[in-house]
Each structure stands twice: as structure tokens, then as C-alpha cells.
Design a protein that fits this description.
The structure holds three protein chains of three kinds. By secondary structure, chain A is mainly α. Chain A is built from 15 helices and one strand. In chain A, helix 5 runs parallel beside helix 13. By secondary structure, chain C is an alpha/beta fold. Classes of the chains: A mainly alpha, B alpha/beta, C alpha/beta. Chains in contact: A-B, A-C, B-C.
Chain lengths: 341, 354, 323
């Protein structure tokens, strides 16, 4: 199964990807999401430039436990005097890297499995679905704990487990859609013309699921980021990396609550919130874009707010017959109240 | 087997003998008795080149399954399908694909039969692309030619199906169906989903194309008036079996099977002045799972006799090129009559006059 | 005191949309008499369903805007009625039969319960009494074993049965007016005949007026007494069914009647009306039908004709009515 072909297929969709971004931008909520994600990505990429201090610097003993100030916009840690703002910026790297890479890997694996199960059916379908059933039963957290104990604490283990167990949700959903798509008449028409299974899968089925994949992936990333924060909090992540979850753990262990160092807790918490919020926002807006029925109500309302009553009257007047013989009801037209929302 | 309205001077293009298609019903729990949907049972027919063959019936009668079996989409559980003399399902994969390219289908719902993400150009070009062997320029020229044939413009090429009305989408579907120059076209209720004023446009287009390219049509519909107008031979199906068949002239002049008569009277006419006896059937179409052993229509038949429940009706020739499967017509054997099987099932009103 | 059951005067409905306004209904008048079956005929997009919903006052103000001069049901003025009062009218004095029974019926309630609800809302019957009426209603519409069938859910019934349930629902309180919106379009031909038969006998036997909305001319021919033909938001012809079908005056009516294939036809090409209905946002100047009309003149291209009354209840909207 050449994943290269699939990749090319996805790359060809680049044009429509841009138009999707454009639509997101036009939607007010989507714009917010896009800007936030943009900022996060920027922070992750340009971390060394943006961070005022070296976040790993634990030598500044004099700077310990400082409140937010001009020099340290988010203060410093109590235990080591690290600049929290710099740590926050570097923390985006871990969150985004893990969130996005896991999400994308799940997208590939889940879509592949879902399409194969749905389209090929029969034994393959049964096999894949039974695997899904088994994977869903296995609890991931204890597994991660056990594996990190065996292989050492690292994000690789976490990502591996997430991907190996996380593709099941997407696969199920994609499979349902594929079952519907494969009975479409245009698929039948292609089969009549002699299309191979591969052709139908890549040209008709897979593009038909692209919306679902993108939406699901966005929301998955958000979920992964929260999960990662939780695991880092538990100390299962890479001890040398800076992660928001780890920051929260350190804050708790370092007595932030005791000493009222609210900035130490707020910063990583806000970071997690913003990351998850922005991805979810984009996901929800995408659902509205892909499902036109959901969009209707909000935009129609806005249209009505700006309606010019004179314009409406003119429209209704234009519906009258010219120089009508019998005069219309003198009382004038009444607005038909059909129940306002 | 239905013959043509003149002596067949050539071999039939498509021939089916004793075709049955059964689908298994998913078992409620393992080891329970296996039940079968008898979608099509023992159907035989002959379609000549250039003719329009009508299949009439309501939902659940098996017409779509029959059509699918004709074009190689569904393998029959029993019986043979012969296309151009070759047994279709016995062909090697390559020959099978080639044979299938000679058959195409026009679907009922114009809104779901075109991929909404494709452009009109992609859609019409697709069969050519799949088959291969044509350059980009050749394909484009062919698409343009067909667009004009079905009454659309060049600018429509790069638009999406969602920009078009139902009638226009059906035209696109027709263009796609003939791009490979097939010999055989199955039209599955091609105008049922369209507005009345558009019906005529699409039907006329289909008839023009048939004439200019000498195509063979299988026309599936529940609208008997249209079928009468365009088909040479007709098959009336109910719950998977053929009730009546013959040339359309013979069948419509002298409908014999109670179901055919009910269908005809149910096709309400726009002729307000003509009042005719309406035959109203009892009840609803039963499920095709484990259908009755006798005549499959007996439960709703206003003329049912006791024996109809258990004894299947055989197809008999009524006149030249007209056959019916009905005990009313063929009668019971003397032993059955002696057993009182020809008594009408009680308390069934026969007709309601308008 | 009069025999008029429904009177609609000058109904206009528009749907503002990005890029313009969808002119769904452009000033139509409708009347029904007691016991009469009036058909509103037209193709998709002509505005007939919107008309039905407006009469029931079921159109919501976003996304629609509507104006009406007068809406009267059996001499009662509904024009300015509040939603609260309308709820008492709907189901009791005026009821609707929708096209798609699966979406019109509540899938998680038994059909018996749904009919019971109508009784309990509009009459003072107890639960037991309401159920008795429900069973009676189901028997009336021809549902076999009505008492046990009342405990079925909609998805357990066949299409024809569901449609009968809708009819029973509508007729439950013997309203003065029934609006049936494409009541049989989704059904098989033989089932359609059965259901229409029930509808017709219910209507005639109980003297209920009916407004039948459909695109199927054969249904009209068999059920209606009077016909209104609608095109692109306007009434273009009105008349008694026999006259209209044998002697149409508007070119569109003639075209429609001609394009319906008849069993009595010889094998010939189908009569077709060229082109398609105008887009509801971009309608042509003058008469809306002129681009498709073989009799169109300059006058037709510039001015919209008025709806003129000919003799005996005949109305046509055409500069050059046929014959």
C-alpha cells in the first residue's frame, strides 16, 4: 500500500486547503482560532529569538520567586529562578510538536484503516474492527506508565502509545462514511467503466472523507495536547524538556500555592488553555463550513439585522400588479407573524 | 421468454435464463435458521439490439437487482446472463471488464449520481480516463462534443454539479453514460426525480440518442404511460417474479394479470372525463424475505383463489408474444379443481368504480 | 354565514439572502368553499409549499418575511392572531398533512400516542377516551388491527401506513380545512391509489375542505374540484378542474397538460416545454413565463399581465390567453 500515492493525493488537495484557510479567516470565530494558532506556531518556531532568557538557566539564584515585572513579565520560579515567560514560549514546542505529530499520524493510520475496512469489507473489515475493539479495551495510562518504566521516560513512548491506540476513533467514523460513499451511484458508474478498487478508493472515497479527516484531526490535536499536559504533570514525559504540564507539576511541588506565586500556575495553565482552545475553535468552525445547514442560522440572522425596511417594502410593492383594476384591501398589508425565534 | 415483435433476425444482445438473485439476511444469532431475500426469482428474458425493453414494477419488486445482474454488478445465485453470446459471469477478468464497458447506466437520483467534488469535465471524462488510451486533447474534444449533444455549454465544463438543476444534472449523467459508446444502456427511473415539464425534455433526448447511435435501452419505470410510449417489450415484476410479459402493444391492449390491471388503473390519468374502474389492492407490499410459496401476489390479489397460496403459477403463452403467470388465466389442473382450490378467497371486493 | 372556508388575500413571501431576495410568493389570492377540494399545482420552486406554510403561519420570520392582506378561516380573522392563539387553531380548525411521514411523525413515540395528543390538546377527553377516538380514527383510514397498530412506532409501519396515520392525525378533530402538501408523492403507485382513495372519501364524507398542494396533475384530475396553477410565485390560471383540463387558457397550463404522457397516446415524441423555471432571485422582466412561451410577444416581454377574471370563476394571467 503505497503511502506515497496517498501523500500525493493529499498534496494535490493543497489548492482546496488554501481555500479552506480563506473561509476560516472570513468567519469571525475562525479568524480568532487561526490567529491564536499562528501565534503559537510562531512562538514555537522562533522560541530562541522570542524568549528573553534561557529557560534552562537555573543559576540565577538571586532571581528566585520574583513577581511579574518588566524584566520578568511572568515572574520567575520559586525553586530555581527560571524565567517563566521564556519557559512558556519554549513550552509551545513540546505541546505543538506532540499534538500535531500525533494528530497527523493518527489521521493517516485511522483513515487508511477506515477506508480499507469500509471499502474492502468482508474479512478485512472484520479483522480491523476486532482489532479496534481490543485496542479500545486496553487502558492507555497504565500502559504508558509501564512502558516508560521499561524504556525510560520520553515523549517518544507517549506519542507511540497515543498513535497506536488513538487511530481507532477516526477509523470507526471514516468507515461509516465509507460504507455510505461506496454505494454512491457515481462509484457505480466508475466501476462500470472498469475502475480498479484502488482508483475508486483514491479518487472517490478518500476525497469524500477529507472533510471528516481534517475536522477530526484538529479536534484530536486539541485532545492530545491536554493528554500530554496531564502526562507531563505526572512526570512521565521527557525530564529534560520544558512542558507546560511539567511546569504545573514543578509549581505544585515548589510550593507555588503555599507562597502565593499565582503567576507560576497561571502561565502554564493559560498556555494549555489557549492551545486547546484555538484548535477546538478551528475544528468547530470547520464543521460549520463543511455542514452548510449549521451555518445558515447565524449568517441569516446577521442578514436580518442589517435589513433595510424600505428595501423590503420596495420588493413587496414590486410584486403588485400594475394598475390593478380592483383596489386592494384598504387596511393595508399586515405582517404575517409566524413566530419569532 | 419474451420474443421480439418481429421474427428475431439476429441473436439477442442480452439474454437471461432462469436468473435468480438471493441475498442472505444477517442472522439474529448464530445457528438460527438462515433466511434469504429472494430479490429476483427465475427470470428469463431476451433483449434485441436497438430495442427499448421496459421493466415495470414498484419498490421491492427486484427491478434494480435485475438491472444490476444484467450489467455485471451482481452475480446471480442461479441462471445465466448472456451478453453478445458470451456468458457474462464466466468471462475472464479482462474480457469481463471489456464487456462491461459496453454497458452503462443512468441513475434515478440526479443529485447523488454525480460526485459533488468533481467538475463536469472530470465527470464526463472519467470513463475515458479509466479505460485509458486517449490523450488529454482527445478526451477534451469528446467531452465538448457530448456536452453539446446533451444541450449544455462549453462554459459548463469547469463547474460543479451543485450549480445545475436536476434536469441538467441528468443530462450530465447521460453524457457520462455514452462517452464510451456503449451498446447497452440501463435507464433506472431516469425521470422520476425530475419536474414534470423536464420529463419530456430528458425523454426526448434519450430517444434521440438511441436513434442516432442505435443503442439498446432497458427502461425501468413505474410510469406505465411512458413505458407504453417508448418500449417495444415489457416485463411486469412483483416481488422478484415476472407476472406478465410481452410486447407493449399486446400487453397494454389486453392486460391479463390482476397486478398489471391494478398498476394500469393506479396510473391516474389526466383525462378527467374518463372514469374507469379502479382496482384497489389490499394491504402493502410484503417483504421479500421468504416470500410465499405459491403466487407471490396472492395476498393482495382481488381475485385470489384458495390454490393461489400454495401452488406457484407458471408462465403460459396467451397469444403471440404475450405471457402471463396467473391461475386465473391458466386455470388449475383437474385434481386441484376437485379439491376445491379454485374457489375464490372470501370477502374480497373486486373493484371500486370511480 | 358564507360558504367560504378559507380566504387568503394578497399573500407575499420573500426570503432575504446574500445577494438579493428570493421572491417566493408574489401576491396570491386563494379561496376554498365548504367541502371543496382546491388544488394548488406547480413545479418545484414555484412557491406552493411556502404558501401552505404561510396559511398555517408556520413560516418563521428569520429567514422569511411575509405580508398578507387578509387570512380568514371560516369567517374568523387569523391575520393578526398571535402565535399562542394560532396553536389553538392548528390541529383543531386547520390541519396539515406533510409529504414525508418519517419526518412529520415523532420517531420515539407510538403513533397512537401522537394521535391521542391531538385529542387531549384540543378536546377535554380523558386518556382512555382519547385512545378510543384514536382507534376509531385509525380504523376510518383503513389501518388493519387498529387497536394493536396504535402501539407501533413510525418506523415499524410501511410508507402507506404512515401516510394513513398522517391522514388520521389531520382529520382527528374534524378540522374545517386540511392542507395536504404532496401527500402521496413518495409512495408507490398502487399504494398512492389507496391513500388517495382514503383521503378523498374522508374529505367528501365529512365535508371537510381541502387544499391540495402537488405537482402531479393526475392526482389533481382525480381529486380536485378547483385548480390554481402557480408559476414562479404567481397564480397564472384558476378554474374548475374539468374546464381547466379540457380547455386550458394559459400557455403554461397547456404545456404542463401536454407534457404528461397518457396511456391513450400513440407512440410519438413527448411534448416539451423548453428551458427551465426562472431562478427565484433573478426573474425575467415582464411575464415570468415568456422565455419559455411559444406565443410570447413584445408586450409579454415588458409587462407582467394582470390576473383577469373570465367567466364563472375562471382566471388567467396572460396577455394572450389561448382560444
Amino acid at each position: 500500500m503505497s503511502s506515497r500515492n496517498v501523500f500525493l493525493q493529499v498534496a494535490r488537495r493543497g489548492g482546496s486547503f488554501l481555500s479552506l484557510v480563506k473561509k476560516l479567516w472570513q468567519h469571525p470565530k475562525g479568524r480568532v482560532g487561526l490567529i491564536l494558532v499562528g501565534l503559537l506556531v510562531l512562538a514555537a518556531v522562533l522560541a530562541p529569538i522570542l524568549a528573553p532568557y534561557d529557560p534552562y538557566d537555573v543559576t540565577q539564584r538571586a532571581e528566585k520567586g520574583l513577581r511579574p515585572s518588566l524584566q520578568h513579565p511572568l515572574g520567575t520560579t520559586i525553586t530555581t529562578g527560571q524565567d517563566i515567560f521564556s519557559m512558556l514560549i519554549y513550552g509551545t514546542r513540546v505541546s505543538l510538536l506532540i499534538g500535531i505529530s500525533t494528530g497527523v499520524a493518527i489521521a493517516f493510520l485511522g483513515a487508511l484503516m477506515g477506508v480499507m475496512a469500509g471499502y474492502i469489507g468482508g474479512f478485512v473489515d472484520n479483522l480491523i474492527m476486532r482489532i479496534v475493539d481490543v485496542l479500545l479495551v486496553i487502558p492507555t495510562l497504565p500502559l504508558i506508565i509501564v512502558l516508560t518504566g521499561l524504556l525510560g521516560r520520553s515523549y517518544f513512548v507517549i506519542v507511540l502509545v497515543f498513535v497506536l491506540f488513538g487511530w481507532t476513533g477516526l477509523a470507526r467514523v471514516i468507515r461509516s462514511l465509507v460504507l455510505v460513499l461506496k454505494n454512491s451511484n457515481y462509484v457505480k458508474a466508475a466501476e462500470l467503466a472498469g475502475a480498479s478498487r484502488w482508483y475508486v478508493m483514491t479518487k472517490h472515497i478518500l476525497p469524500g472523507t477529507s472533510h471528516l479527516i481534517i475536522m477530526n484531526t484538529t479536534l484530536t490535536c486539541a485532545g492530545i495536547m491536554v493528554a500530554e499536559a496531564g502526562l507531563s504533570f505526572l512526570g512521565l514525559g521527557d525530564p529534560t524538556a520544558i512542558s507546560w504540564g511539567k511546569m504545573l507539576a514543578e509549581a505544585q511541588g515548589g510550593g507555588a500555592l503555599l507562597f502565593g506565586a499565582w503567576w507560576w500556575i497561571l502561565a502554564p495553565g493559560a498556555g494549555i488553555f489557549l492551545a486547546v482552545f484555538s484548535f477546538m475553535r478551528i475544528g468547530i468552525v470547520m464543521e460549520e463550513i463543511f455542514n452548510p445547514r449549521m451555518k445558515a442560522s447565524s449568517s441569516i440572522y446577521k442578514l436580518f439585522k442589517h435589513l433595510n425596511n424600505d428595501y423590503l417594502d420596495e420588493v413587496f410593492r414590486s410584486m403588485d400588479d400594475e394598475e390593478s383594476a380592483e383596489p386592494r384591501d384598504r387596511a393595508g398589508p399586515a405582517v404575517l407573524e409566524g413566530g419569532h425565534e | 421468454m419474451t420474443a421480439n415483435h418481429d421474427r428475431p433476425h439476429s441473436d439477442p444482445l442480452l439474454e437471461m435464463e432462469g436468473v435468480s438473485v438471493n441475498f442472505p439476511v444477517k442472522r439474529a444469532y448464530p445457528f438460527s435458521k438462515r433466511r434469504w431475500i429472494q430479490a429476483v426469482t427465475d427470470v428469463s428474458l431476451r433483449i434485441s439490439e436497438g430495442e427499448t425493453f421496459g421493466i415495470v414494477g414498484e419498490s421491492g419488486c427486484g427491478k434494480s437487482t435485475l438491472a444490476n445482474a444484467m450489467i455485471g454488478m451482481v452475480r446471480p445465485t442461479a441462471g445465466t446472463v448472456r451478453f453478445q453470446g458470451d456468458e457474462l459471469y464466466a468471462l475472464k477478468p479482462k474480457a469481463f471488464k471489456q464487456a462491461r464497458r459496453n454497458m452503462q447506466m443512468i441513475f434515478q437520483d440526479p443529485f447523488s449520481s454525480l460526485n459533488p467534488r468533481f467538475t463536469v469535465y472530470d465527470i464526463i471524462r472519467e470513463p475515458l480516463y479509466i479505460r485509458g488510451g486517449a490523450s488529454e486533447a482527445e478526451m477534451k474534444a469528446k467531452v465538448l462534443e457530448l456536452l453539446k449533444l446533451v444541450g449544455l455549454d462549453e462554459e459548463d465544463m469547469y463547474r460543479n454539479p451543485s450549480d445545475f438543476s436536476g434536469g441538467q444534472r441528468q443530462r450530465i449523467g447521460i453524457a457520462r453514460a455514452i462517452v464510451l459508446n456503449p451498446k447497452f444502456l440501463v435507464c433506472d427511473e431516469p425521470v422520476s426525480g425530475l419536474d414534470v415539464s423536464v420529463h419530456a425534455q430528458i425523454m426526448n433526448l434519450l430517444m434521440e440518442i438511441q436513434e442516432s447511435r442505435n443503442l439498446t435501452y432497458v427502461f425501468i419505470s413505474h410510469n406505465l404511460a411512458v413505458v407504453k410510449n417508448v418500449c417495444q417489450n415489457v416485463l411486469v415484476m412483483y416481488l422478484g417474479k415476472v407476472m406478465e410479459s410481452g410486447t407493449s402493444d399486446a400487453l397494454f391492449a389486453n392486460p391479463l394479470h390482476p397486478y398489471t390491471k391494478a398498476l394500469l388503473s393506479a396510473v391516474l390519468d389526466v383525462d378527467v372525463e374518463a372514469s374507469h374502474d379502479r382496482i384497489l389492492l389490499k394491504g402493502d407490499t410484503p417483504s421479500p424475505i421468504d416470500p410465499p410459496k405459491g403466487c407471490r401476489f396472492w395476498q393482495r390479489c382481488p381475485f385470489a383463489m384458495v390454490g393461489c397460496e400454495t401452488i406457484p403459477a407458471e408462465m403460459v403463452d396467451v397469444e403471440n408474444l404475450h405471457q402471463v403467470a396467473c391461475h386465473l388465466v391458466s386455470g388449475f389442473s383437474p385434481e386441484h379443481v376437485a379439491a376445491g382450490l379454485d374457489q375464490p378467497v372470501s370477502s374480497l371486493p373486486q373493484t371500486w368504480a370511480d | 354565514m358564507s360558504d367560504t372556508v378559507l380566504e387568503v388575500r394578497n399573500l407575499k413571501v420573500a426570503f432575504p439572502a446574500p445577494g438579493g431576495v428570493i421572491r417566493a410568493v408574489e401576491g396570491i389570492d386563494l379561496t376554498t368553499q365548504k367541502g371543496e377540494c382546491v388544488a394548488l399545482v406547480g413545479e418545484s420552486g414555484c412557491g406552493k409549499s411556502v404558501t401552505a406554510l404561510s396559511i398555517m403561519k408556520l413560516l418563521r420570520t428569520p429567514p422569511s418575511v411575509s405580508r398578507i392582506d387578509r387570512l380568514e378561516l371560516d369567517d374568523r380573522d387569523l391575520t393578526h392572531l398571535t402565535e399562542r392563539d394560532m396553536e389553538r387553531v392548528r390541529g383543531k380548525d386547520m390541519a396539515m398533512i406533510f409529504q414525508d411521514a418519517m419526518t412529520a411523525l415523532n420517531p420515539v413515540m407510538t403513533v397512537g400516542k401522537q394521535i391521542d395528543e391531538v385529542y387531549r390538546r384540543h378536546t377535554k377527553l380523558s386518556r382512555k377516551e382519547a385512545r378510543e377516538e384514536t382507534v376509531k380514527a385509525l380504523e376510518l383510514v383503513g389501518v388493519p388491527e387498529a387497536r394493536s397498530r396504535a402501539d407501533s412506532f413510525p418506523h415499524e409501519l410501511s410508507g402507506g401506513m404512515r401516510q394513513r396515520v398522517l391522514i388520521a392525525l389531520a382529520f382527528a378533530c374534524m378540522p374545517k380545512l386540511i392542507i395536504a402538501d404532496e401527500p402521496t408523492t413518495s409512495l408507490d403507485v398502487t399504494i398512492q391509489a389507496q391513500v388517495l382513495d382514503v383521503l378523498k372519501s374522508m374529505q367528501k364524507d365529512h365535508g371537510v375542505s381541502a387544499l391540495l398542494i402537488t405537482h402531479d396533475l393526475s392526482v389533481v384530475a382525480n381529486m380536485a374540484d378547483t385548480v390554481y396553477v402557480m408559476y414562479s410565485g404567481k397564480i397564472v390560471e384558476r378554474g374548475a378542474v374539468l374546464e381547466l383540463f379540457t380547455d386550458p387558457r394559459h400557455p403554461y397550463t397547456e404545456g404542463l397538460l401536454g407534457s404528461v404522457p397518457k396511456l391513450s397516446d400513440d407512440k410519438q415524441a413527448f411534448v416539451q416545454i423548453p428551458d427551465t423555471v426562472p431562478h427565484p432571485m433573478h426573474k425575467p422582466d415582464g411575464c415570468y413565463f415568456h422565455p419559455r412561451c411559444s406565443y410570447a410577444t413584445d408586450r409579454c416581454r415588458q409587462h407582467m399581465p394582470r390576473l383577469e377574471t373570465l367567466d364563472k370563476g375562471r382566471q388567467v394571467r396572460c396577455w394572450h390567453p389561448l382560444r
